[in-house]
Design goal:
Blueprint: H1 2-24, H2 27-33, H3 36-63, H4 67-93, H5 102-122
Length: 123
């Protein structure tokens, strides 16, 4: 589906930009605050799930645009927003309460992978 290819492309741009920004411009601040690893985790999970969103876009051409694939794509996207987004904000602001919502994003990732598996089984 074209929408997931567009979302994946935007997210891909952002993870490269954020990763580079974090590794260079923000590194001293993140290290001093003890959040460099947290920021890197956010970038890594965004990268992996961006590729998953693009895979969903491609798979709709082979398996058809099923509700399961759409659900997987949206779950990956929501996971990026909640999981990686909360870790980015936590890293940059130190607002530790945001760590409480991070697992919700992780759960969204898991749902996406399960839906992708079921779509593959039915395809």
């Amino acid at each position: 589906m074209k929408l997931f290819l567009m979302l994946g492309s935007i997210s891909g741009f952002l993870f490269v930009a954020l990763g580079a920004f974090g590794a260079h411009a923000l590194k001293p601040k993140l290290e001093a605050a003890g959040y460099l690893e947290t920021f890197q985790t956010a970038v890594q999970y965004q990268m992996i799930h961006t590729l998953a969103i693009i895979a969903v876009a491609i798979l709709t051409q082979y398996l058809g645009a099923t509700g399961l694939l759409h659900g997987a794509g949206w779950s990956f996207f929501i996971g990026i927003i909640i999981f990686s987004g909360s870790l980015y904000v936590l890293s940059l602001t130190g607002i530790s309460v945001l760590g409480a919502i991070t697992p919700i994003g992780g759960l969204a990732f898991l749902v996406g992978w399960i839906l992708l598996f079921i779509a593959a089984m039915q395809g």
